[in-house]
């Protein structure tokens, strides 16, 4: 790897399971963007047959109100990409249409667009649609867990074999977006407990694992961008035409970036080795977490701030 960075982050000792690292370049290369999809209207007609009027997207989250001719509101529709652009396994967001009723109950969560490799060339897409059907009837204040849970109040849904990371991200997208919009519309109170309960890193759990396995199961996250993708992302901006790749250079790597949380022994011990992992953990203060960021390619994730003061100004942790 040409670039390597370690970051130590002070947080509460109660670490949220299923953490997300967002390594944000200084421009947007998101493939999933808000646009109109034929499936949106089809799902609304299927699930709200009494609706005759659909408003234009309104507010910060571009929510459409579903009503009839006499002003009765039956529900609300919005795209998750307007609420959260959390990257999935592919490194790109999944865009969902979410339908809510006036009581804050999810009526439908339908996948509009994705770029998940396992769904494109592996498992049938219908399996993911079947997984998403589980959200019908769930209130935005409920806690939903993919797999088993010791929390008897939680709603549990089975993972999709071969696409566990993808459906875990979908779960976070759906519940986070639904709760955020419901609060914004006044359907539920802002203090409602829809967020997952915090969890602890299990320091006693270790399994010998290879780099390939850690990347494959999502423990190490990857984002790969070519020069052509970057050029396309800048079209229509002031930077269009700057350092454009020739036709034969469009497939060359702009950045091939990896990031991971080092505290879990199955990740940290396998990557660093027993001694270096022990030294790193010994140097962390209570509640601190260590992350590794690595990359190849022309673009540096460190940024200009790193040169001046050691600050990684192109990396964000959420």
Could you describe the 3D structure shown?
With 318 residues, the chain is α+β, with helices and mostly antiparallel strands. It folds into 2 domains: 3-17 and 199-317, no CATH class; 38-185, no CATH class. Helix content is 26%, strand content 22%. The protein contains 9 helices and 13 strands. The protein has helices at 38-47, 117-121, 125-132, 164-185, 211-216, 227-233, 265-272, 274-283, 304-309, and strands spanning 3-10, 21-22, 53-54, 64-67, 73-79, 95-100, 106-113, 144-146, 155-157, 220-226, 253-261, 288-296, 316-317. Strands 3-4-5-6-7 form a 5-stranded antiparallel beta sheet, sandwiched between helices. A 4-stranded antiparallel beta sheet has the order 1-12-11-10. A hairpin with a 5-residue loop joins strand 4 and strand 5. Helix 7 crosses helix 8 (274-283). The radius of gyration is 21 Å and the shape is globular. Mean pLDDT is 84; it is low at 10-31.
